[in-house]
Write a structure and sequence with these properties.
By secondary structure, the protein is of the alpha/beta class. It has helices spanning about 40-50, 70-75, 95-100, 110-115, 120-125, 135-150, 165-180, 190-195, 215-225, 235-240; strands spanning about 1-10, 15-25, 30-35, 55-60, 65, 80-85, 150-155, 185, 200-205, 205-210. Strands 6-7-8-3-9-10 form a six-stranded mixed beta sheet, with helices on both faces. α3 (about 95-100) packs parallel to α6 and α4 (about 110-115) crosses α6. It starts with a strand and ends with a helix. The model is unreliable at about 235-240 (pLDDT under 50). Bound molecules: adenosine-5'-diphosphate (ADP) and magnesium ion. Magnesium ion binds near residues 40, 41, 85 and 156.
Length: about 240
């Protein structure tokens, strides 16, 4: 469904991603693990087509079509969406209207709000503005992804940051995304969340070091990455720390 073929990404002269290959299969939940600073968010931005994250090498394919040179809105139109680690706000419209902007036809916005733990009675007509807490904003963002029913949903650490969603909530939302037909690329470190995925991969040294069942991958991650401060410094790799 979504395929990265030999992609490299350089930011401020530093090669963050190096000829990386990756595939997100249709209908799967795929977790991406990696210590802080390995480039997980950068990879998410690259897939979404965010300016500044264009690969210097390699191709990105969606359903076999080359989307490497398409801008964000074109990718969004084709069904890729990203729930931001720190969601953006749209001032002046209600939460219901905001979710409605991305909702497919026939989507019950009240139901979607309930699924992310926001009572429709209290939130549907509330303004989507600066008075919302971080956690409420995250929930609104996830609700809009749910309502969109995208082909590919990328969720960047929905379970961390200020006022995160609880693990059971995240699991409920992701299951619902899968049920409604989305493939999910989920960046997370929580064992409970990794375990619910169909497959999991470890990003380190600019490439995918392992892809396997969640249990196998998590074991590998714990054994190889815990306590390792190697991130993306090629010198360290040469000296054999990785
Ligand atoms: P992760 O999400 O795995 O913690 P990131 O993708 O956020 O990692 O970051 C990977 C590396 O790229 C880090 O060294 C980070 O500082 C750097 N980086 C990412 N985006 C930018 C940017 N816009 N400007 C400068 N450096 C960046
Ligand atoms: Mg990140």
């Amino acid at each position: 469904m979504l395929r990265l073929d030999g992609v490299s990404l350089t930011i401020e002269g530093k090669e963050i991603i190096k000829e990386l290959n990756f595939e997100l299969r249709r209908g799967e939940i795929h977790t991406l693990l990696g210590v802080n600073g390995t480039g997980k968010s950068s990879l998410a931005y690259l897939i979404m087509g965010i300016p500044g994250y264009k690969p210097s090498k390699g191709k990105v394919y969606l359903d076999g079509k080359d989307i490497t040179d398409l801008p964000v809105h074109e990718r969004a139109k084709r069904g890729i969406t990203l729930a931001w680690q720190e969601p953006v706000r749209f001032e002046g419209i209600t939460i219901g209207e905001y979710i409605g902007l991305s909702a497919g036809s026939g989507v019950d916005i009240s139901k979607v709000l309930s699924l992310v733990g926001l009572s429709p009675f209290r939130y549907l007509n509330r303004l989507n503005d600066g008075t919302l807490s971080g956690g409420e904003r995250k929930r609104v963002e996830l609700a809009s992804v749910l309502a969109m029913k995208p082909k590919v949903a990328i969720l960047d650490e929905p379970d961390t940051g200020i006022d995160p969603l609880s693990i059971p909530e995240v699991i409920r939302v992701i299951k619902e995304m899968k049920r409604s037909g989305s493939s999910v690329l989920l960046i997370s470190h929580r064992p409970e969340i990794i375990r619910m995925a169909d497959r999991a991969s470890v990003l380190c040294g600019g490439n995918i070091q392992k892809t396997d069942s969640p249990n196998e991958t998590f074991r590998w991650f714990e054994g190889n990455c815990k306590g390792c401060d190697y991130v993306n410094e090629p010198e360290v790799r040469k000296s054999g720390t990785l």
